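Exercise 7.
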Amino acid sequence: MNIVKNKLNQAGIKPTYQRLVIMDYLEQCGSHPTVDGIYENLVIKVPTISRTTVYNTLNLLTAESLVHAVTITGTEVHYGIGRADHHHFLCVQCGRILDIEVNCPLATQVPGDYLGHQILEVHGYFRGICSDCLNKNKR
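Solution. The predicted structure, written as tokens, is:
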């Protein structure tokens, strides 16, 4: 958790226990959970945490570019840690959102100009069935 604490300190964010736990959870989970998913997993470990705390913390971490928000389903915001200039894969069976590496020339130019337009963000995603679900279907 020291790495998480250092990231918060470097961003000028006070490393409260709730912020550390939320950020550590995102570092460890390997997918892009929603506010409710984060809350449901953390309330077991931290009974005093609230959905409002999770929501407010994610907004702060997103504003400071420590966390990125992903809206693929059109109904929910999912959160992840890491670079913002990558693409995502949405499994239509289990609903997980995974980071994927795709060679996208626009992603490496952001922010910047392209064909006379100023690009602020690039969002790319793929929909399909993840390898875990494919393996379950084969059984």
